């Protein structure tokens, strides 16, 4: 059995929205309290407390802070588990030390565990969630299998969504006995060894002008609002940015445009990666270090929009689901080696788009297709 996440839109009433906000705020409160405790123990020479010890401390904190009982209990336990995971990554050198979560920019989601069927689908229109009761939702017909947990999220656009994790037993796709190597690019998002090129639709650039316009409006409106807030403070009146509707509208418009870009990119990549696992048994991808490539300020925007890491993660879980194989190879010299004779012909500027080998006199091969063939050959040679 595999685990599958199903995202859906929620339409909570006002009371349910208030409860979601309470769960988010108290999740942040518990995480910051536990982080403060861990830092204090370290300064006093104490040992690190794992997630099970932090879960026990929640009971003590509920006695000290009775308002914690308003939150859904398992979301507080998941806050401790998230902090413990962050510390484990810090101990192994993967991440920096965990930071406190700001009240101004909180983590706008929380996770609830399914215990005694406290998360279940009532019908095609309502889902039962802990502390919320029956919440209206779209897309419930896609939930099949035992529910494990749910992540409730408050989007920057003001909308609410839930990601339900269910047990899923995928049906293995039929074998095709075909192999493909993929070279990742910018002009074309993916170039396959069989000559197919996936067009890069540049979703971020297509809405850049409209998004930039709303970002300027937001900056101007926020500046004007801050001036009014300072004037009100001198007069003894308290104001907050949340009370300025024009600021909130501009903020939501920027968030909606960012969400639209992300949804378009997600759909494009999901469609392509699903098509790959249907037609090929072995998929070979170059293991690019995107973090290093983003330091190139001339290409960083295009590289970020291409979302190469997302392609790799999608192929990883889809190959695992459907019985296909994904291999990552070192991309070193794949654009310099001749795919026919294997000789290294040296570096070439990006303006040269065709590959010509002076050793075997191979000519008029697309440079990116040649690299994709080399990527596939590398994986086959290592098997």
UniProtKB/TrEMBL annotation:
Keywords: DNA recombination, DNA-binding, Metal-binding, Transposition, Zinc. One of its GO terms (molecular function) is metal ion binding. Signal peptide: none annotated. GO terms for biological process: DNA recombination; transposition. The keyword Metal-binding applies. In the C-terminal section; belongs to the transposase 35 family. Residues 308-375 form the Cas12f1-like TNB domain. Residues 164-296 form the Probable transposase IS891/IS1136/IS1341 domain. InterPro entries: Cas12f1-like_TNB, RNA-guided_DNA_endo/Transpos, Transposase, Transposase_put_HTH. This is Putative transposase. Residues 1-46 form the Transposase putative helix-turn-helix domain. The keyword Zinc applies.
